[in-house]
Amino acid sequence: MDEKRKVTQEELESAEFMHNKWIEDEKCGDRAVFENCSFERLSFKNMQFNNAVFRNCEFRLCDMTDAGMCFAELNNVKFSGCDCTMFTAEEAAFRDVSFDKCDLKSAVFTHSSLRNIAFDKCETDGMSMQNCYELPEAEIIRVSPEDLRKMSDKEGLILQGCGGDLQEWADGINSALIDTEILRHTAFEKMYVFENEGHTNIMFPFEDVELDVGKLAMWRLQTHEQFGGTWLSDYVPNRLGGFIEEQPAQEQKKPDCPLIGEDSNIFNLMGIASKTLKRNGMAEQAKEMCERITSSGDYNKALCIIGEYVNITSVDDDMDESEDEGMEVTMN
């Protein structure tokens, strides 16, 4: 477990002063970013850390009354035995945050996005969580530009130049689109990540989400300078050379294989079927069939597997065909 740096009251007050200077003018101060820190028996009373960042931090027996953390990011944070009366954290991002034996009377968390937030043995009279929403942890699917060219049946929003933590990108975009009512009662639960021209890009697919496409189009234009947002249907033709229509694979005809009348030992039948496939230029199928048979563990299942690769015929049928061929030769 990482050892946390213990923050003093003097450091805290200095950080708040510089942070609020930064809020007024980014050139004049420094944003408060606390990582791997421990706050023990400190007074945050009336302090304003709006838009600050707290990652992997612990607050123990702190006075948080009337403290402000609106728009703040709290990730892997634990509050233990703190007085959080009238604590205000509106539109904040809570990720893996716990409150243990805290006084949260009249605390305000409205419009915040939540993932894995817990309250254990806390006083919560008058606490407001109005319009808070749970954010799913998005599934990150890495693809190549060539994979995108095969998605002619999909549509999505592509953002370009997405460096840093990909999950934070998913959380940020979901929060922004939920807050502006572009996403309705849903969130993007997966995203495709690809590299092109030296940039990391993200495609958010429209499938399985309910959204206002008109509002999203306006948002995309308004934020284009920041995110380089475009549609999948525009990006692929303009940047990747167009979509590729996948040709359906032609089904390869199963060769006849005389197994009826042979020794019924499954390995004997497998060997005959394998040789038949190889003779017909199907060595890969032969290998695949043998692997499936040996792992099936059941005789009847193994026979069914053989039947998927070859047409099972009778040894007698094969002999009859040979005799017919011999008769034709004799007559000539």
From TrEMBL:
SUPFAM superfamilies: Pentapeptide repeat-like. It holds the Pfam family Pentapeptide. InterPro entries: 5peptide_repeat, PA_immunity-related. This is Pentapeptide repeat protein. The lineage of its organism: Bacteria, Bacillati, Bacillota, Clostridia, Eubacteriales.
